[in-house]
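haha ok so turns out i had the wrong file open the whole time. this is the CORRECT one, sorry everyone. sequence first:
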Amino acid sequence: MPEIVVNINDQDYAIVCDPGEENHLKQLSSRIDFKVRELTKRFGKIGETRLMVMASLLIADEIHDLNQKLSSNLTKIEELQTSISSKEKILDQQQMESQKYIETNNEKLTDLLSKLSQAS
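then structure:
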């Protein structure tokens, strides 16, 4: 398993990961580093552990908000799919009724034409 070194708030951390995940972990660590540095600017040096906990809580809160939005959007998608399905059934029924109407009137016209041609 590959081992990478990530730097968060000027502190190096050796991380073991699955092959191919190195760049992804580096991107994640950069995000954490950004959050920790934001907190350091706001609150000063308040201790590495406290900074990591606060950064973790902020990121967890972002994830929570995104999960709520995702859930809400999935619900909207399901509602739209149900609505589309219902409207498709209505359209199918209307198309069948229109086809039946056309066929019935075609039969009536054919009968009338037949009667007219026999009368002449």
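Strands lie at 3-8, 11-16.
again sry for the mixup
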